[in-house]
Design goal:
Length: 162
């Protein structure tokens, strides 16, 4: 079964949203759009199925830097890529909480390679979380069965008939 990933494209320019949307739809991703950082924050809060975000930095209402900080507080493992023309992004992206960045003007193959790389690492992160949780559940079950076994050994002594 193939996993279908969902990307949120956040940009205040409609043409950019449309072109990025076409790029990702053609490559099999589900696409959701937001026009500013506030909409992105609302969507990321409401829709836990979003796997990755393409975030412009200079937008009205809430800019991409502030939106990323707020989103990371509620969804720290969500992958957010800055897609911007800002020259200082190399210095700012880690401090802001972006997982990576891509400079405008966008080269479609380059952006797709970055997104695909981030999504390919996502299965590993999710699998490691799953196996960690499964390990602790097994530990809990082994302790449960040890105590159950001790209880079963005691029960026959209670029910002895003289």
């Amino acid at each position: 079964m193939k996993i279908k990933h969902k990307i949120l494209i956040v940009d205040d320019e409609a043409l950019t949203r449309e072109r990025l949307g076409d790029l990702f739809i053609k490559r099999g991703l589900d696409v959701v759009f937001a026009c500013n950082g506030k909409e992105a924050l609302d969507i990321c809060t409401a829709d836990q199925t979003i796997d990755i975000v393409s975030m412009d930095c200079n937008m009205p209402v809430i800019d991409g830097y502030k939106a990323t900080k707020k989103i990371k507080k509620i969804r720290p493992n969500l992958i957010i890529i800055a897609v911007t023309g800002n020259k200082d992004i190399e210095k700012r992206y880690k401090k802001t909480g972006f997982d990576d960045y891509f400079k405008k003007p966008v080269t479609w193959d380059g952006l797709w390679a970055l997104i695909k790389d981030k999504l390919s690492n996502l299965w590993f992160i999710n699998a490691s979380v799953f196996f960690t949780e499964a390990f602790f559940i097994m530990i809990d079950f082994s302790e449960f069965f040890r105590k159950l076994n001790e209880a079963i050994l005691i029960i026959p002594n209670i029910w002895t008939f003289d």
